[in-house]
Amino acid sequence: MIRRHAHRDNLIWASGAGAAPSPAATVGDARQASPRKPGGWEPAPAAPRTEDTVSRPSVQDTAPLAPSRERRPPHRARRHVPGTVTQPHPLTNRSTNEQLRTYEQGVRAAFDQIVPTLKQISALHCEPDFTQRAQQLAQRELGFELPNGILDDAWIAGLDLRRLYAWSLFETYRRMADDFFARDPLRGRETTAFDEFLQSCGFHLMDITPCADGRLAHAISYVLRLPIGAVRRKSYAGTLFDVEETVEKWVEVEHQRFREGRPNTADTSTRYLKVVMYHFSSLDPEHQGCAAHGSDDGLAARAGLERLHHFRQAIENSFCCGASVALLLIGLDTDTDAIRVHLPDERGEMDLNQSVDAQALYDQTHNLTPEAARQGILEAVCAAAPDTADEGMVRLVARLVENNLSQIEYVRTLQGGGYPDAGHAERFMAVGIGFEEIQLRNLTYFAYLHTVEEGAPDLDVGCRIFDGLNVSHGLPIPVVVRFDYHGRVPGARERAVERARRLDRALADRFRVRVQQGLLHRMLVVRDCDAGSGLEVVSTSVDPQPAGGH
């Protein structure tokens, strides 16, 4: 069962204005269909740089928090109905919560305005001055103009609302991404403090694989409250990350330590930390869990743990001198954003029936002083950890749990006790390599891949999700094809563009019927990650097609 998001309900209008012309099977050369004006986008204030925690009087006779061992099997998600918060938690960063909320509301409002605006425009298409009035309306409500060609041709076969929807969504995404890279609104580049803390715990890199489900897209900046520049994120359906690709990343990181001393020198006793984040639903566990695992939370946890073990074994089998990695498994309740963490022993083994539950700790430590609450979290983490657990891992998990308390309160207070979109409500699919600017829940479904063949399972899961969200209402599936490149490498941009075009051709072939019906549109973009600049749009399937000739 896929729960629809309200902003796309009852959209039969999308296909009711006559037959839309079929787009070409592949994206053509880039053309600027209409001016892309900078107005309309109102960026949110950047997140604050300082902490703002709530102080409470110290209570001398406060008893130590009883250590708790969470033995609930991962497939038996506890039904939890969040209550309202009358008093902030002592460890909650309220100012950051307000800033994150402002940023989230601004981005979502831009995407949510697309459908209402196009509905208004569709009601005008028989007017004699339609193009002029439509552009004025789009500029006022969306902040940019629409392709004149689509508007001018509306009198022939009706207004092609599928193309207009795709174009509007692509332009909204481009503007959001450019704003993100220009302003760093989530302060993701401020990494020094966390880098130092991570290394003090015995790790030189934190590599996180959340599920590709859009309800985990905010895992870094919101759920864990980590700077995105300090961690590596790469999402896969069902958290089934590519072991070989991750081994290559490990080699790259270790080589960088040896040659450049970054993030620390090779003789420093730290390890590469690989983290998997699976997910479950406490409110509807049988339907709103991980689609890749049939909403079976136990299967999702076991699959993530197995993939972690494969990665560790690959490193140990392939490299000498005691090469190894650290492993960590985290579960996320997508209804409350509370995490549960399965701590490993010294060999990376984890008991899936034992975890530390941030939701329970939020309630247990709510009335304590900040110092007592922090100590209570540490005691609970120690109690849930195996006897041979690494001390640095315990410290790191305690920090992650503490960070997560702010997100739990964010959902309880600023989201009215729970998310209105408990199920899928993604706006577009992100395919290729990149997308670090996507840090909001339920905005994007990820499919990190180089070729359609290797990413077929992720793509198929994504299309099933969007068949319910968009296609069932007559709207197309918007797909952003993206490849980042290093501008310092000669020819890197040209190769990135060719990869995007090759992937686009494969997408058009695999989903030929949807493409022919105008139910799958693509935008091809590349980005120079060395320059730190915004996106470069290569082309879109909405661009005008070349006129015929001899």
TrEMBL record:
One of its GO terms (biological process) is carbon fixation. It is an enzyme of class 4 (lyase). Residues 14-25 have a biased composition (Low complexity). Residues 89-181 form the Carboxysome Shell Carbonic Anhydrase N-terminal domain. Residues 425-541 form the Carboxysome Shell Carbonic Anhydrase C-terminal domain. One of its GO terms (molecular function) is carbonate dehydratase activity. Its EC number is 4.2.1.1. Keywords: Bacterial microcompartment, Carbon dioxide fixation, Carboxysome, Lyase, Metal-binding, Zinc. It catalyses: hydrogencarbonate + H(+) = CO2 + H2O. Coiled coil: none annotated. Residues 84-97 have a biased composition (Polar residues). Residues 194-424 form the Carboxysome Shell Carbonic Anhydrase catalytic domain. Gene3D superfamilies: Carboxysome Shell Carbonic Anhydrase, C-terminal domain, Carboxysome Shell Carbonic Anhydrase, N-terminal helical domain. Residues 72-81 have a biased composition (Basic residues). Residues 1-97 are annotated as: Disordered. One of its GO terms (cellular component) is carboxysome. It comes from the Bacteria. It is found in: Carboxysome. Its cofactor is Zn(2+). Belongs to the beta-class carbonic anhydrase family. CsoSCA subfamily. This is Carboxysome shell carbonic anhydrase. It comes from Ectothiorhodospira haloalkaliphila.
